[in-house]
Amino acid sequence: MRSLTQSLFVTALFAAALTTGLASPAAAQMELKIMAPAAPGGGWDQTARSMQQALNAEKLVKSSQVINVAGAGGAVGLAQFINGAKGDGNQIMVNGFVMVGALLLNKSPVTLDQVTPIARLTEEIEIVVVPANSPIKNAKDLAAALKENVARVTWAGGSAGGVDQITAALFAQAVGADASKVNYVAFSGGGESLAAILGGKVTAGISGWSEYEGQVKAGKLRAIGVTSEQRIPGVDIPTFKEQGVDLVIANWRSVMAPPGISAEQKKNLIELMDKLTKSAAWKEQLKQKGWDDAYISGDAFGAFLKKEIARVNDVLKSVGLVKS
Amino acid sequence: METRRADPAGIAFAIGLFALAGVIWWDLRSLQGATTYGIGPQAMPMVVTAGLVLLAIGNLVSALRGELPERESTDPRAVLLILGGFVALIALIGLGGGFILATAILFTTTSAAFGRKAIVKDFAIGFVLAVIIFLIFDKLLTLSLPAGPLERLL
Amino acid sequence: MEAFSLLGQGMLVALQPMNLLFALVGVFLGTAVGVLPGIGPALTVALLLPVTYKLDPAGSLIMFAGIYYGGMYGGSTTAILINTPGESASMATALEGNKMAKAGRGGPALATAAIGSFVAGTVATLGLTFLAPWLVEIAVKFGPEDYFALMCVAFITVSATFGDSPIRGLTSLFIGLTLGLVGIDKLTGQARLAFGVPELLDGVEVTTLAVGLFAIGEALYVASRRHHTEEKLEAIRGSLWMTRQDWKRSWAPWLRGTLFGFPIGALPAGGAEIPTFLSYSTERRLCKYPEEFGKGAIEGVAGPEAANNASAAGTLVPLLTLGLPTSATAAMMLAGFQQYGLNPGPLLFAEKPDLVWGLIASLFIANTMLLLLNLPLVGLWVKLLSIPQPWLYAGILVFATMGTIAAKPSVIELSMLAVFGVMGFMMRRFDFPIAPVVVGLILGPVAEVQLRRAMQISLGDPMVLLESPISATLLGVALIALVAPFVLRGLGRFKASGD
């Protein structure tokens, strides 16, 4: 046993030597717990850990801890958050657009109505691309192809019921094709779908802008359009809106508080988020990760959330993923 | 070698496989054929069900013929001790008893299953081991391990 | 050769004493965390990434490479010593490696794993350096139908792990396939065999199954029959180091393993498991001492270990050239690279050559450091086996559960671990092979999803499987592999009767 204990002890020393430089003495009073309802490494986890870093660096809280509760697109974490953190003003949970669809798809017994919306932090614009040698040049060509034979247009994107599939369905709806017949092929993550598009296996691909950015700039993929209101600054890709397709959508990430917290606690958390998003450390995190700032808080975010839930519900019903 | 005869354990196993196939079949009826194109989500469960039924028949035949390998007797006490440790571990973590206590108990019951009688000493070893693991992973590497009353003291 | 001079410059940076120290610390931390079963390289990198934040870019990149390789190797150590594969890719290593450790040959097993990883890592990193742009062109041509065909090849090779009864081997495989059905169907988002339990929607975690079947099942089995035979573990029998004979039997599997691992790892959906299985079954067929397989044949450790490490270098091909993270580990690495201002993608080699070559140099250095650190440690690791049996197994169970508790601390996940433990115990008692269960869980879902994707894209026309040249070739290989043993046996019989 001795050798094992010894080696663990040496590890501890090494790690201690390396991490002491990181922990900063605390100033503010809050001991914040941030739940990431996903495994380490994904988007929510990275958001939570970036928040943690910025909060610690700016000394906005006394301490902050990230807790990962993975499972079912966030439904497992959400259930635990609702039941375990009730009334606790020192806990927050990271989530986002994808959770809305996942909860509907999994027939989750807990819903987002049960938590207290705090703020939307970031968003990522969706982009539709085709292989560089495709005859499809713009949104109009894609719309024409869809209307001619909706089945023949194959779409590659992320997991079923996620933001990519919803974008595909909304595109079809917007151009007057049958959304329930959209031939959407779900891949696990942007990586695998990218290979299918580059290899010319599918007609079009959908993902977050950053996933395809390198390929588009290198000329290996042709961008058809982005789903934002305005063009992405410094990027010469038309929006769908300016091409006459009414499609605006973004993959947003947000922060929720537990149910049953007092108005005071809610105000504190919103103020904390105000300070966080204004801080230099947070802006540095956004730049590093390539996230767009999309900060809205409190009631404005609550109203936005309601609209998004209704929209996702409609789309998932129309494509037959959720039974009405 | 004694004459071969039907092996009850093997028969039970074959019945278990039949039951498993039944469960998959029952579950697959609730799936909608939502896919518009290609193969639906029911196809693979059907293949697996069919395979399980065939294998259940195969296993049944070989059990009836007594073809299962010979087995030595087992010590149920040892198995139950280890599993008891697991039940305690799961219960403690589920009820918020914390990582250290749960781990120390599993350590103790397992070493008892392997014939150790010095329960107090083993518990102490398991406890120290758990504390070291907890300090390294929870405190230094910020990997959150389930915390109970003990962990909050550290 | 421009590549050489750039690599040389990268090496000069990486070889500075401070950077060497960072590499050493990285490898050490990576190994220490990576040995925990259930905490694979991805989680190891995720946990340790913050440690590198405070260093300068060169230093942190090097430490990062060290953590990565250390995490990879940590999984094999537990697979060999305590029959607990730390991640799915070291399962094939456990099959022969643990048998070797039990026979007192843990030293040579760990050594061939370490040296094999080094050889494979080096060869594959060279491949990455010179072949990446060319290889990636082929890799993206792989469509769903081609992956399905590759899975067919892999399924045939699984039979190598069946033991002597095909019916029991197939039963194990189908139990694995059943477990593979659990969870959300990737293409339609519907739940299968989840019975309304949210924790089951993500399916059965491979490491939970492997740790349950191997580590816990084994502990239960050994404990239950202690009264028959006091299992005497001898930590060292014969030489602690590899003998001349061991070297002779290891070098070819190392190279063959690399040949499987690197190209398949470079495929966007290739993964690390399939090359390790392919390597295992190939070595089993080619081995001059087939009777040793299942009892601790060194080839069965050397090949899969090399394949595992080479595939890790392979995943860097799409990651660096396309910005395509093809595994959880690669996704973590991508996050790491971004930390250092490195944005993988088609323009990376042109825009930031110094950082790319610095990274590749770091990989070389980290790989060497891993070997230097682990060879001396082999003696220490093997001594773990001389811990008295009760404490050894108690410690194994603590570490086995610790991985699951850390990764998914839920009652359901832990209960699954215990149930799989009991399953492993029963299967050992009734002589069912264990490995096919895990293989079924890994390959089943992939094969299903790829076939369905192919059919969805072709609007239900099965001819795509034969129209794609890659798929047609692979299916041909699978067919030959399936039929060949029968034909050869037939020929043998024919010859025998002709004499």
Helix content of chain A: 40-55%
Architecture of the largest domain in chain A, according to CATH?
Answer: 3-Layer(aba) Sandwich
CATH topology heading of the largest domain in chain A: D-Maltodextrin-Binding Protein, domain 2
Give a quick account of the main beta sheet of chain A: strands, pairing sense, barrel closure: 10 strands, mixed
* Number of DSSP E strands of chain A: 10
Residues in helices of chain C, as a percent range: over 70%
Shape of chain C: globular
- Overall structural class of chain A, as computed from helix and strand content, comes to alpha/beta
> Regions of chain A with pLDDT < 50 over 5+ consecutive residues?
1-27
Oligomeric assembly: heterotrimer
Structural description of this entry:
The complex is a heterotrimer of chains A (324), B (154) and C (499). Chain A has helices at 2-19, 43-57, 75-84, 97-105, 139-148, 163-174, 189-198, 209-217, 263-278, 280-289, 298-318; strands at residues 31-36, 63-68, 91-96, 116-131, 154-157, 183-186, 204-208, 221-226, 250-257, 292-297. With 324 residues, chain A is an alpha/beta fold. In chain A, strands 1, 2, 3, 4, 5, 6, 7, 8, 9 and 10 form a ten-stranded mixed beta sheet that branches. Chain A starts with a helix and ends in a 6-residue tail after the last helix. The model of chain A is unreliable at 1-27 (pLDDT under 50). Chain B has two domains: 8-64; 76-153, no CATH class. Chain B is built from six helices and no strands. Chain B is flat. By secondary structure, chain C is mainly alpha-helical. Helix content of chain C is 73%, strand content 1%. In chain C, helix 4 runs parallel beside helix 15 (353-383), helix 6 runs parallel beside helix 12 and helix 7 runs antiparallel to helix 18 (435-457). The interface between B and C is large, with 73 and 65 residues.
